[in-house]
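call fold(seq) -> tokens
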Amino acid sequence: MDDQQDRDQAPRAALPPIERAIRYLPLIAISNFLIAVPAFALSIAVAYFTFIQADATTKMQIASVWPYVAFETSNRNEQDDPFIRLSLTNKGVGPAHIRGLEVRYRDKPYTQFREVLGACCSDSPETLSVGIGSMLGEVLRPGENVMFAQLDPQKVPADTWSRFDEERLKLKVRICYCSVFEDCWIADSGNDRATPVKQCPADWHQFYGSAELGRMRN
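ret:
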């Protein structure tokens, strides 16, 4: 009986090191997993906030040089004398590179100012003394207004001037322009908002103002 008790109380033999390691492997794996999950979540959060910050910075940079070009027409000069003027104005906060200008009258595109006058207001437009400027390739500073066509009542017949004073309001003008970051928009005289585009269209009937300016551009 005593021998049996002595055998029961005898210390058990220690497990080999490899078996002990295998025995604790699940606990080690769980511990590593519990440590790795928060670290992974933290890295995802840091990456997300970095992306958000970079996106916000990019948007701020774009906004800081955002151009907005609009077509304008008037029949009075700074001295309040009769004087018709067609122009583009950059109402944005950054420079605008003009890459396209299309002028339509009664839904037909024209490349020259005298062609427009011949279609609406004059039987001999080639004899008229007009002011012409080409906008293609020009860069407009913020707040800058640049003329691309004008009509002085002192230099053209009165009926031609009066007629065009009415018909100029029927012109449809489209402008394509880009920012310094090569973001581009199309502005339409019939719409207050410019439409973002990947690049300026190549199939427009570009308004050069005159045949001479057109040849210079081409």
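The first strand starts at residue 69 and ends at 76.
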